[in-house]
């Protein structure tokens, strides 16, 4: 039988209120969308960040809000108390993936034209149907074309 302890956090562990999910701060806009929005904001602000870990006593429930963002990956024992801790993870690729930038190729024309035509048809009317392929093909030392790719199809 494990002993349950009330976890009083020392001042060094305190989190500024603005950093907590809104459910914890009492904001009326609470909900899973808000926690997802917080995760996206964190990943936008820190491009080098790939994971967010959340470690809580194993008897604690994350609740219906945090469970939508964090997946449990395991348990770790505590060395000072007779309790285990649950380890949860939030993956970057689930909320705000990184873009992969590469040099454009003529073959990209078929994938890029619908995007261009969605926003503006004047370019096609002015420069012709294959203006983008010609632009990509005309790359030299001073003029470059790049493509940003993402495997993100959600949210």
Describe the protein.
Helix content is 30%, strand content 19%. With 155 residues, the protein is α+β, with helices and mostly antiparallel strands. A hairpin with a 6-residue loop joins strand 2 and strand 3. 6% of the residues are buried. Strands 1-3-2 form a three-stranded antiparallel β-sheet, with no helix packed on it. It contains six helices and five strands, in the order ααβαβββαααβ.
Round the Cα radius of gyration to an integer and report it: 24 Å
Counting DSSP E segments of at least 2 residues, the number of strands comes to: 5
Largest beta-sheet characterization: 3 strands, antiparallel
What's the N-to-C terminus distance? 43 Å
- Which runs of at least 5 residues are low in confidence (pLDDT < 50)? 5-28
Number of domains: 2
Number of helices: 6
Mean pLDDT: 76
Shape: elongated
Helix coverage percent = 25-40%
**Alpha-beta classification:** alpha+beta
Order of adjacent strands in the largest pleated sheet: 1-3-2
β-sheet strand percentage: 15-25%
Order of helices and strands: HHEHEEEHHHE
Protein name: Cilia- and flagella-associated protein 61 N-terminal domain-containing protein
Pfam family, one: CFAP61_N
InterPro entries: CFAP61 (IPR038884), CFAP61_N (IPR032151)
Domain Cilia- and flagella-associated protein 61 N-terminal: 40-150
């Amino acid at each position: 039988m494990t002993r349950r302890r009330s976890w009083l956090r020392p001042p060094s562990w305190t989190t500024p209120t603005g950093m907590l999910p809104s459910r914890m701060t009492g904001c009326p806009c609470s909900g899973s969308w808000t926690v997802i929005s917080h995760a996206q904001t964190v990943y936008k602000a820190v491009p080098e960040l790939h994971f967010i870990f959340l470690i809580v006593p194993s008897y604690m429930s994350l609740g219906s809000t945090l469970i939508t963002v964090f997946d449990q990956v395991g348990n770790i024992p505590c060395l000072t108390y007779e309790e285990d801790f649950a380890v949860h993870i939030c993956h970057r690729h689930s909320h705000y993936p990184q873009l992969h930038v590469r040099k454009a190729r003529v073959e990209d024309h078929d994938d890029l034209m619908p995007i261009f035509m969605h926003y503006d048809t004047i370019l096609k009317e002015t420069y012709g149907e294959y203006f983008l392929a010609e632009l990509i093909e005309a790359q030299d030392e001073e003029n470059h074309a790049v493509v940003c790719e993402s495997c993100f199809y959600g949210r």
